[in-house]
Amino acid sequence: MKQETLLDQRKKRIGPNDYKRNMRAKRSSDRATMFVLAATILFLFSATLTSKELNTDALVWKKECQKYFFFKEPRIVYYKDYVPIVWCSIESQKILKGEIPFDYKNDTQ
Questions:
Q1: Containing domain of residue 102, as a range?
Q2: In terms of pLDDT, which residue wins out, 78 or 43?
C-alpha cells in the first residue's frame, strides 16, 4: 500500500482543478509583484541619481554664496531680512526645486 503524500492529500481536499488554478494564479501574481518591485527599484535608483546631482549643485552654490558674504567689504549683516548664511541656505533650496536662485552679486554691488 502506497502512502499518500501531503500534496496528494491537498489535491483531494480541494480538487485537482482547483489546485492547478491556484498554482497558475500564484505564478501570475508572483510575476506581477516582481514587475512592480523592479519598477520601484528602477524609479528610486533614477531619482537618487538626479537628486545627487542637484544636491551637489545646491551645496556648491550655497558655499559660494556664504563665502561671498563672509569676505564682502563692507560687511553685510542682514540681507533681505535674513542673516546671509541663512539666506544662502534658503535660496539654495530653489536649485533643488529646479528654479534659479536670486542674483545676490549684482544686487549687492
A1: 6-107
A2: 43
Question: What's the structural domain count of the chain?
Answer: 1
Q: Considering only CA atoms, which of 99, 98, 69, 101 is closest in space to residue 83?
A: 69
| pTM, rounded to two decimals | 0.47
Question: Are residues 89 and 62 in contact, defined by beta-carbon separation less than 8 angstroms?
Answer: yes
C-alpha cell of residue 77: 549683516
pLDDT higher at 80 or 27: 27
CA dihedral defined by 91, 96, 99, 104, rounded to 10 degrees?
20
User: Count H helices, E strands: the chain?
Assistant: 4, 0
Question: By the 8 A CB rule, do 30 and 68 touch?
Answer: no
Residue 37's pLDDT is what? 93
Confidence check: pLDDT of 50 > 70: no
Amino acid at 66: Q
Contacts of 72 (CB under 8 A, 6+ apart): 108
CA 9 to chain centroid, in Å, comes to 48
Residue 1 inside a domain? The answer is no
